[in-house]
Structure to design on (184 residues):
């Protein structure tokens, strides 16, 4: 009771931060879901008018596109659902200990996988459509694909590490002033 009364403002600030972060990730995941769903429906190169099959169905780049697009779709939907569950939780004090950080970590991790696989799918599409036997084009495409992925990792990985260490680390109750933990 004393703890809850003394930390009421801290809980409120934590709730606001969680809602803002989850809201931002929800929007991002929804945009990715929309993009990769549309990409799955309009396959690179189109379809054969007689059979309805994709023209590049036997191309290895097309298989990479299909697999990475599906991974991106499923992980972005998972991220979206995790962030929505954060937005709709009751925000009890107990939720801040494990439940909310776990959902946020899973949401961020799924969003990272989604962004990475979306960029791979986009790169595979570029390679299918414009390479046409020019293998040198693979290297600029791969380099440019890494740019947004590295940017996302650089910006979001510290948050993921902080969430992980505060949730599963030693925490404030396992620390002493000399840096050693007590043994009972």
């Amino acid at each position: 009771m004393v703890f809850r009364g003394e930390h009421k403002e801290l809980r409120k600030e934590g709730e606001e931060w969680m809602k803002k972060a989850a809201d931002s990730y929800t929007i991002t995941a929804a945009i990715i879901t929309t993009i990769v769903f549309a990409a799955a429906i309009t396959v690179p190169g189109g379809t054969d008018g007689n059979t309805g099959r994709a023209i590049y169905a036997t191309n290895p780049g097309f298989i990479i596109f299909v697999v990475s697009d599906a991974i991106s779709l499923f992980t972005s939907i998972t991220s979206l659902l995790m962030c929505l569950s954060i937005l709709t939780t009751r925000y009890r004090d107990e939720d801040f200990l494990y439940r909310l950080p776990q959902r946020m970590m899973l949401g961020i991790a799924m969003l990272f996988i989604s962004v990475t696989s979306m960029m791979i799918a986009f790169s595979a599409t570029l390679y299918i459509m414009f390479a046409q036997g020019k293998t040198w084009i693979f290297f600029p495409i791969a380099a440019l694909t890494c740019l947004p992925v590295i940017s996302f990792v650089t910006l979001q990985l510290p948050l993921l590490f902080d969430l992980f260490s505060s949730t599963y680390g030693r925490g404030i109750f396992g620390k002493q002033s000399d840096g050693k933990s007590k043994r009972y």
